[in-house]
Amino acid sequence: MTKDSVKAFLERKNIEISARRYGIDALSAMAQGLFCSLLIGTIINTLGTQFHIGFLTAPVCTISGADYTVGGLAMAMTGPAMAVAIGYALKAPPLVLFSLATVGFAANGLGGAGGPLAVLIVAIIAAEFGKAVAGETKVDILVTPLVTIGIGVGLAAWWGPGLGAAAMKVGSLIMWATELRPFLMGIIVAVIVGMALTLPISSAAICAALGLTGLAGGAAVAGCCAQMIGFAVMSFPENKWGGLISQGIGTSMLQMGNIVKNPRIWIAPTLTAAITGPIATCVFKLQMNGAPVSSGMGTCGLVGQIGVYSGWVADVASGAKAAITGMDWLGLILISFVLPAILAPLINMGCRKLGWVKDGDLTI
Questions:
Q1: How many domains does one find in the chain?
Q2: Prediction pTM value
Q3: Distances (CA, A) of 107 to 78, 79, 238, 303
Q4: Are residues 192 and 145 part of one domain?
Q5: Looking at the structure, do residues 130 and 207 belong to the same domain, yes or no?
Q6: CA-to-CA distance for 363 and 341, rounded, in angstroms?
Q7: Is a pLDDT exceeding 90 seen at residue 293?
Q8: Each residue of 191-248: pLDDT tens digit?
Q9: Full residue range of the structural domain in which residue 244 is found
Q10: What are phi and psi of 63, to 5 degrees?
């Protein structure tokens, strides 16, 4: 095939190999898929548990011996939701789009802490190969799913574990930081975990795997909140209330497409994490002694804050802590909400004055 014929084929199949298509369109759509599965499931579970809502906490079905709540079912569909969202962004035809559900399930499961990153890479490749063969044979209903699923699951098995291991390399940096003095540890852990929350990797899975609790867990909570609340508030002029809620109690990953376009929008929330992290560890002695996974959740469904509170309750019950004090609550509220909501917009204002950030850069 000549260069012109290949170009014509790609145009006919709507296969556009570009940084914008893969790094912005696909990534932005994937973040929405993540919100509509893992994050909304987390929020549903949190509401059910904290407000004792029976139909949200009771299992609605049992699959292979495992009980699932409504939120649990949504969380189980994280991989398929992200992959289908990516296929939608790539304008995949129906047979390719539907086949990506299997691809996403495999990539997310095999990718571990790097599950979202595995889904992003594998789903893009599987979708484009699927698009290439779609409609080219008389047995399209067999060929297109076979190619899409075959390539996708094969790549997931080949690359997924490696991407998961690469994501966990972030964990080695975090564990090194936990050995430092509280001030430096607070900065490094808050910045790394906060950035992991926004990147297409799972900060929650990393924190769970590391068993990240105590002061380091508190720093992680601070970093995640700096990203989520920081982006939510500083992008309010562009995204209004919907953006405030979706980022503030959902995920800052919704900004990844914009970060690819202009990495400087990441300066304000990241510097905010570097400020609030050591305040959490040195001033308020904020500890996460709840479930380690909560350290990497930030304000998503308020899981981070509930984790800190459940740790307080457990510490009081065991005698490790005398009582939950007003200073505890002040620290949690300031670190989680108030300081990120003030610092990130102020720092971003400076970035705007320097011409680094412009109107529309934060629109999701």
A1: 2
A2: 0.85
A3: 10, 7, 33, 25
A4: no
A5: no
A6: 18
A7: no
A8: 999 999 999 888 888 888 888 889 999 999 999 999 999 999 999 999 999 999 999 9
A9: 180-353
A10: -125, 120
